[in-house]
Amino acid sequence: MHSTPSSSSPSPSPFEMVSGALERHIPGGGAAASGDPGDTQGNHLTSRRVPDDAAAGRQDQILGAINLDRELRVTRCNLQAPVFAGLDAVAGSPFVDLLPPGDVPTVTRRLRQVLETGEAHVARIQRLRREDGSELVVSLSILPAVATHEGLTVSVIAMATRLHLYAAETAIGTSLDIGQTAQALAESLLAWGDVAAVDLDYAVWTGEKTARHGQGRIRLRRAALVPDRAWPEGYATPGDDLPGDASRLLAQAVRPDDAPQAIVIPDREAIERVLGNPRVIRALLPVDQSAGVACIPLVLDGTPPLVLGVAEVWRRADQPFRDSELLDLQELVARTAHHVDLARQHQREHTQVLALQRRLLPRTGGDTIEIASVYQPATPDSAGVGGDWVNSFPLPDGRTALVVGDVVGHGLGAAATMGQLCMEACALLCAGLAPDEVLEHLDETVSLLDEPDSGLAAGYSALGSTCCIALYDPVSHHLALSSAGHLPPVLVPANGHAGPLPVRPHPGLGTEFALREPFHVHTFDTPPGSLLALYTDGLLEDPAVSIDEGISRLTDTMSTVHPWDPLQQTARHVVTALAPVPQRDDVTLLLARMIGYRREDTATWRLAARDDTPARARAHASAVLQRWQTRDDTRANVLLVISELVTNAVRFATGPITVRLTRRSHSLLCEVGDTGNGRPHLHSDRLLASGGRGLNVVHKLTTRWGVRWTDTGKVVWAEIPR
């Protein structure tokens, strides 16, 4: 690929001038300068590096020349400098074969422009392709020949090092994913070797801060490896933990007792002497041929410095690392270590938010309701998880709570608010509050969190967050629902047409400062087989479709659901059919299929509040328990509990009393409703105590008991094991 200048021309051509200048600076024959391998005996970390001045004539040569004919084919070239190794400029081949496909039209147009006008095109930053697919960044100049028929001369000046450092630094920080960040760093390091790898401290990989380790005790995980090829069995690839003995080698660069530093091991023999174990050699050494490695620690400045991991560059032992190359490697790794740390922090936040999100996933509703949900976060917002949340949980009194909400914003601030609102709603619902009362408390909470002293993330506001709460009663088959600014749920009755529930609109949480409009409770009949869909706006938020049209599409999709269709499969189908592409917001969907109790498993009586009411309630209950073939001891406990609860209602309340008995799989549920608004309290069971002894009896005979509030009074419930 080398051609000597022609002496036939009366005046040298541009190609001859460039090529002649080239050869004056290249040692005879372009022989590779060799360095003294040195004595590694007794010191396995002795590096074999070539001083910068020892190979200045060859390694620092960055100038090359290519001559083209008028058809833009290569006629002669001088790319003897090692920096151009792999550029296949064969005589007769098109010059555009050296270009990335995307650059061919532009460069071809420039070449033909110089041919036509005779005006040089100077210093174009251009990429050239090597045979192995890698690229070299050069400054490319197009010079017209002295004679028109001689075509063109293209001079190339390799500026890869400085340009590569700049390009790599800007490319590495484009992702907050720790794996992608490590991969970008490894791809940048490949310019200095044949194989590049990035191994991170296990704590960094999981998002935590690294701890100080004893020497040689660091635990590393391979985060990135290039090039992408089929590696032999046993070699450490991304996601693999490095063997403990392998970490000993890399720990030399990250030992905590002094400043982290780069190390160079010059050849395979020295590496084998360091590692010793064939299994470890197989895990670390990328090729069978002789290879050397440079290990550069990823370090954050501090006292002491925080070491995140190690970057390794492997290449053939006959091409030892020069001092300037090591400085370039350390400069690149030092410049980009903070990107790895940012990705670590993002990973930690992502892990925390996902843990919180998993904590809020819906739980089963038991035998009375079937639950399925899909949560699809938008990416790559902050931690990858936003403020949408959905939850379902059985209440102690046998009902099931269905809750869906959309907290303003994304990231840890939104996730913290989401968790607080969800847990508060769960606690209040378990305490027996109605949906509208729960939303009133959540409204106050959001307003409180927006105050400057709330301790929430600076600049974050949750005002305007939405929430919808539904309570399903499996005995009456009623659904009580209240909403704060949320989109209306869609109900598919067992024997009717699907449609959005007519819920009175209400502003979002924390947004009503001047007028505190009360929240409303809406009640709907949901016979067994009915299907309810709760969702957030991300499911329908398509710029090309209005919200009303989106709700209509959801209704149509829900109408096609067969009562026997698997619910989780149905939820995925609905999301696939409706979720916008590309997705701009979190998508949340909760489907609930109402089952309820069979009519023969429940009994309800409405009794007047009179002195003989406890006896009448016991008589009704005794007949039902006999029909249910309840054991004698269980029947006695149930009758005693009903007697105490009804007596309490007659004594402290007025109006009619409702008694309800429900047979469950492992227990019996007794409920006594009255018109009183006083909360029963459990008092001392001492002999001379003035009151509360009846509740002590209930407390001892039941697994749990409690109170829930209604529009007309309260209901005291108690669960008795069967």
Would you mind describing this structure in some detail?
This protein is of the alpha+beta class. Helix content is 31%, strand content 25%. The strands form 6 sheets. It has a 5-stranded antiparallel β-sheet with strand order 3-2-6-5-4, sandwiched between helices. It has a 5-stranded antiparallel β-sheet with strand order 8-7-11-10-9. The longest helix has 37 residues, at 323-359. Mean pLDDT is 78; it is low at 1-9, 24-47, 53-59 and 380-384.
Keywords for this entry:
17 helices; alpha+beta; elongated; 25% strand; five-stranded antiparallel β-sheet
Structural class: alpha+beta
- Uncertain runs are 1-9, 24-47, 53-59, 380-384
In this structure, how is the largest beta sheet organized? 5 strands, antiparallel
Residue share in helix? 25-40%
Quantity of strands, as a count: 27
Shape type: elongated
> Average pLDDT value?
78
The percent range for strand residues is 15-25%
For the termini, the CA-CA separation is 93 Å
Order the strands across the largest sheet as they lie in space: 3-2-6-5-4
**Overall radius of gyration:** 38 Å
Total of helices: 17
